[in-house]
Structures are given as structure tokens and as C-alpha cells.
Amino acid sequence: MTEAADRVFTNGTVRTLTGERAGAVAVRDGTVVRVGRASEVEFLVGVETDVVDLGGRVLLPGFVDAHTHLPMVGRYARHADLRDAADPECCIARLADAADAREAWILGFGYDESAWDGQYLTREDLDAVSDERPVAAFREDLHVASLNGVALDRLDLPADDVRADDGEPTGVVVEDAVRAVFSAVEPDPAGTRDLLLAGQERALELGITGVHDMVARPAVARAYRDLDRTGDLDLRVRLNYQRELLDAVETAGLATDHGSDRVRVGAIKAFADGSIGGRTAKLDEPYADAEPGDEGSADTTGRWDTDPEALAAFADRIDGQFQGAVHAIGDAAIVAVLDAFGGRDAAARHRIEHAELLTDGLVERLADSGLVVSVQPNFLKWAREGGLYESRLGRERARACDRFRDLLDAGATLAFGSDCMPIDPLFGIQQAVTAPAEGQRLSVTEAVRAYTEGAAYAGFDEDRLGRVEVGKRADFTVLSASPWDADDDAIADIDVAMTVVDGEISADGR
Ligand SMILES: [Zn+2]
């Protein structure tokens, strides 16, 4: 006699991504044991089986976000979220609302002064939030922060990166000073756990069943493992450790893929360059625009974070033991990553992160290199008419950014992620399907694949994740409507009805 299923999802549309359509899925011990028409799955319903009526909803393999920063997602949830604030007054109001009396600092994240007159938040603005407690508001890109008077007095910041007017600090700090503020407000272990729980809750609401988190602090890796141990981790997590942690990871005897069912070691992450927004992505030709008030930067081509020689040394050091993941945005940086990592054993699945500005030659080289191309469809929001890409790079190079169709056609493996801008797979899928360059648009199936199977492949997980198939883990995203039937411009508006990890319903928005 066949053993009954633990749970059966039935009466829906199951998009398996195997090429077959189905209406029902049966799960036992967290694994898919049958996929088929409702009538073909029903015989696995026993007295103890939980039968979930999908009511015509659409069940997909669970979304895997291949590039994220979950503590940041938690910060937006726990502190003031300034991302869509329309003016400084709105920032001040949100900071005042978010002030939690149990904490020393009042914090806000994600402000973008281009929404108002282009002036960063000032000490005066933030003194209006509190003149007793320290207040810090971080700009979206984390390269700029604003502080109130109490915070300026309290912190000992590198003077070069503290902006002043007539010798008086304006409250605006940049680069190294931002990093110093960020470390000063880093939470303790309980706070780190709380940020991850808040980030996890948000991810599950958005239909995400797994994340590849870019880990900059050992405390975060520790907190993930603690959550796993106490049974509080509902997501699957791959930890991509920042290169500064390589010695510690190696000393601890870890290697790529070590870990538990839920938490595994992923890649070691390095940065080749910076960002297009910050004019620090490393380009072959200079930026099209100069930084306002900074004549000297008019012909800048960006800067190296890790130069080509050091990248090659990094590749030699980790190859054979760890997967590498290298952030490279400008065309010159992408060449350097290909030179360092191309031609190595494809089994290592080294990854390039972002790969934004591409020539035809680079598209071909990426496809031939065997590197996993970990890209963020969200970034297409900068490719729109008059957007960031056009102002920084000029029209021609703006069109050469985020060439997902060309990459797929050339045979590259795409893994989609959000980089938290914002975290939201359906938003990303909509961006990929509606890319401003018509020739670069993906079909819904291709975009969903990159956010499921492609991301699973980037994490050596294609044997257990990425499709709804017998033998795979029962990680599903259930949508209230089909992105295949929706208007392309309305995909991001589809509600996530359920998020299922190992057959357990982790978020239920029915
Ligand atoms: Zn990132």
C-alpha cells in the first residue's frame, strides 16, 4: 500500500517549470512525492493528510533570491524606512515615529535626496528629531549618512569624511565616516537575530523560500546558525562571506556547501569595483557626467576596489576550495573578473555579481566562461528614459546595460536576485519582462526560471530546488493570479498567497 502524503496542494495551476502542467502536488517529509492532475494525486490523501485547496491559484517552485542582504531588509522593517520619503519633513516625521525608547539610537535607512531639492539631510533636520538622543539617517547607497548634533559629538569620525561649512560640521558624512557610523550602530547578538527574523518575515511575505545572503559580519552567520538550531529559520540560506572573512572561514574548516539542510556555506565574495550611481564602477571610457561641484571628476573612469592583479591572486587562492562571487559592474571590471576566473574548472561555478555594462564581446565571453551570471532585474529601473544609466553613461552605454536576452541567447546561466533594491521577485520579473530595450525582454517563463532554477544552480541546489518535481524539496510560491496571464505592467501587483518551505506553509496571505 502506498503511504499517505503529509500535505496535498490541489485544485490549482501548478507551473512545474519541467514543461509539464499539473493541478496538484503531494508532499511527504518535506519532499515532493507526486505531481499531476488532482485525480492522479488524490489517492495519496489519507486520514492524517492536510489537504490545501488552492482554489485555482498558481503554484510555482519557490523563489530564490540569489543576491540579498537580509539584515538590511530587517533594518527597513525595524527602523525608519526613508526610501520613498518625498522631502526632509517626511524623513523627520518617520524618524520621530520610529524612535524606540528601548534603544540608544534613532535610525533611518534609504533616503534619496533626488526626490526633493538634491540636498542631503542636515544636522539641523535631524536635531528636529531629537536633541537628546543620537540620530543617524543613511542614504540609499550607504555612501552618505546624515547625523544630528548628539551623534556628531558622540562619535570620533575621520575628519576628511565629515563635511563642514565654515568649520562647522553640516551633519553630512561620507565613505569611511559612514562605515564608522554603521559599525557604531551595529546591533548586539540579540539585535542581529531580531533583524534577521524581521528580514525573514518580509522575504516570506514576498514568496521567497531561499536567499543567498552576502555576509559582511561573522555575527550574522552566527545568528543564522542559531536560528537554524532553535528551529526558527523558515528560509533556506546560503552564506556568501565577504572576502575579509576568508581566513576565519578557512580556519574554521568550512568549504562551499558545508552546512545543514537550511544553512550552507556559499561563496567568498570580493568587490572588483563600486557602483554606477556613485561613479565608482570601473569603466573603459570616462563617465558621461561629472560630479556636481567636483571638476576633477569630469573624466573619471571609476575606481578599482580589488585591482586585476589582486583579483587573479584571489581566484588562485580560493579556486578548488570555495566558489568565488565577484561584484563587477563596469565593463573594465567585468574584463578583470573574466581574466581572473574565466577558463577555470566550470564545476566551481564561480559567480560574477551584477555584470551591468556589457559589450557584445563581453556577452560572448561571459557565456563561454562557465561563470554564473548573477544579475538584478530590479536595476532595469535605472535603464528607463532619462534614468541613472543614461545620465552617468550616456545613451549608447545605457542601452548596453543589463542585457539579459543577449546573455541567455549566448548560452549564459542567469541567476536573478534583488540586492534589496527592493527585495521583491515579482517586481524583478516585471522589470525583466518589460525591459526598456525591447530586444532585451525576457518571457515570463525565462524570468521566473532565473529566479528559481537559475538561482538554485548558482547555489549548487538544482538537485533539490528550482522545479516542482518528484524528489525535489517542497519549496513553493503560491500566487493569487498567474503572471503568464497578467498584463506585463501588473505582474508586480500580484499577491503572494502562500510561501511553502519543506512542505510547511511559512507565510499565508490567503
Ligand atoms: Zn549587494
TrEMBL record:
In terms of Gene3D superfamilies, this protein maps to: 3.10.310.70, Metal-dependent hydrolases, Urease, subunit C, domain 1
Q: Which domain of life is it from?
A: Archaea
Q: Which terms are listed as keywords in the entry?
A: Hydrolase
Q: Which residues form the Amidohydrolase domain?
A: 50-505
Q: What InterPro entries would the database entry show? A: Amidohydro_3 (IPR013108), Metal-dep_hydrolase_composite (IPR011059), Metal_Hydrolase (IPR032466), YtcJ-like (IPR033932)
A single MF term (Gene Ontology): hydrolase activity, acting on carbon-nitrogen (but not peptide) bonds
Query: Where are the annotated segments for Disordered?
Result: 282-303
Q: Where is the sequence biased in composition, kind Acidic residues?
A: 286-297
The protein's name in its UniProt record: Amidohydrolase
Organism annotation: Halorientalis pallida
